[in-house]
Write a structure and sequence with these properties.
By secondary structure, the chain is mainly alpha-helical. Helices cover 32% and strands 4% of the residues. It contains twelve helices and six strands. The strands form three sheets. Strands 1-2 form a two-stranded antiparallel sheet. A two-stranded antiparallel sheet has the order 3-4. It has a two-stranded antiparallel sheet with strand order 5-6. A hairpin with a 4-residue loop joins strand 1 and strand 2. Helix 4 packs across helix 5. The structure holds heme C (2 copies). One heme C binds next to helix 9, helix 10 and helix 11. One heme C binds next to helix 3 and helix 4.
Length: 350
């Protein structure tokens, strides 16, 4: 059977390469939904089915950069993180912000910067904040490859769901790859386009980190420290620095300090980290903490100093007001110390 495409004219979105003087908010909070125990998650294809052609090489490179991001250390990555640390199982795991669900959710309009964010824009955000680095350019081989990998995960899984399991994932050109699967004009097999119209693509089951109930008690750093000692320190270490080799490749990521995600990253929000932790930590034993413990330990981890928010322009107070109207400790005082006031350098890459 031959795959039939929707041959809608492909209109380029204005993927503007805005200068980084005013960093847009690309780490904006995702709409978090409660976990649905009945949900059926998309299952991406096995890596062995990647084709051995030019397009397949891009997908393989994307996978490799995603699981070992230290290949980009000093160029685009400024800390000991790998993308896979927060998007687990190589970006395949439902409820750990999987790439397949993300890919189908862009381009997305963001009110905050009044502009359409493509999939590549969103990846750039994770480089700036989560990786404490400098984002690769739109047309760089790295950004193309990371987009190709996410597209491949999403499209292969969708094709399998719609009776196209014997077809290879169709190649896309570099420009199309970077926009994301939510574009009206996105080329996809007809049966998928009909089953999944553009307005439904952004809410595939398992996207993001599932929302948990609000804590009964105000999150407490004291209790959080105890939860950390009992459940986390064995791996992430008492000092939060995890375990890395001398090249900076982390086996267990640091949670604070100079090699962790910075003060602009989504994970520094107490709610976002609580959702992630409740669902995914301690590693291999997910959903073991109580809801209260997840909030407490998230607050504890996020009350520790880390690299500066790259949007900081000299005034902590101004930066806090402008970008930190959410659940986090940046610019706030804890035991007499104001977080962010002695932050590590941001974007220490060449
Ligand atoms: C320190 C943790 C962390 C690391 C490391 C990280 N991310 Fe993220 N990423 C996040 C968080 C948090 C979000 C937003 C989730 C939310 O708000 O619920 C996110 C969102 C995303 C999204 C959008 C998800 C969606 O459904 O819209 C993509 C795509 C993404 N990251 C790609 C990457 C890539 C590529 C890398 C490596 C270059 C990376 N991330 C590294 C934490 C991280
Ligand atoms: C058995 C070892 C282990 C334990 C115990 C553990 N973690 Fe993790 N944690 C990991 C590993 C490994 C990763 C990276 C996951 C990956 O790459 O697949 C990780 C990732 C994370 C991340 C992602 C953020 C980042 O900066 O990369 C956070 C936050 C986190 N853990 C918090 C916790 C908390 C809080 C606890 C205790 C409740 C905990 N972990 C317990 C091993 C562990």
């Amino acid at each position: 059977m031959k795959v039939i495409y929707s041959l809608l004219a492909f209109s380029m979105l204005s993927v503007s390469a805005k200068a980084n003087t005013e960093l847009p908010d690309r780490q904006a909070e995702l709409p978090a939904a409660k976990k649905n125990s009945q949900a059926e998650y998309l299952v991406p294809r096995d890596l062995t089915t990647i084709t051995n052609d030019e397009f397949g090489e891009k997908v393989k490179l994307g996978y490799s950069l995603f699981v070992n991001s230290q290949q980009m250390r000093g160029k685009y990555v400024g800390n000991n993180q790998n993308c896979v640390n927060c998007h687990m199982e190589a970006g395949r795991k439902a409820n750990s912000a999987p790439l397949w669900a993300a890919y189908m959710a862009y381009p997305a309009y963001r009110k905050k910067n009044d502009r359409v964010n493509s999939y590549a824009d969103r990846i750039q955000g994770c480089f700036t904040y989560s990786m404490n680095g400098k984002p690769p350019a739109y047309d760089s081989p790295e950004l193309v490859a990371l987009s190709a990998y996410a597209y491949w995960l999403a499209m292969g899984g969708l094709m399998d769901q719609h009776g196209l399991e014997n077809e290879p994932v169709p190649a896309l050109d570099d420009k199309q790859l970077q926009i994301g699967g939510k574009a009206e004009s996105f080329p996809m097999p007809d049966v998928i386009a009909q089953a999944l119209p553009a307005d439904k693509r952004g809410s595939l089951a398992g996207r993001g980190y599932p929302k948990i109930a609000n804590p009964e008690l105000e999150p407490s750093l004291e209790r959080g420290m105890q939860v950390y000692a009992d459940n986390c320190a064995a791996c992430h270490m008492k000092d939060g620095q995890g375990v890395s080799d001398s090249d900076g490749h982390s086996y267990i990521p640091p949670l604070w300090g100079k090699n962790a995600y910075n003060w602009g990253a989504g994970m520094h929000r107490i709610n976002t980290a609580a959702y992630f932790i409740y669902e995914n930590m301690p590693l291999g034993k997910s959903v073991q903490l109580t809801v209260q413990e997840a909030w407490d330990v998230s607050a504890y981890v996020n009350s520790q100093e880390r690299p500066q928010d790259p949007r900081y322009r000299g005034s902590l107070e101004e930066n806090r007001k402008k970008y930190h109207a959410h659940d986090g400790f940046y610019g706030k005082s804890v035991n007499g110390y104001t977080l962010g006031s002695n932050a590590f350098p941001s974007a220490v890459v060449k």
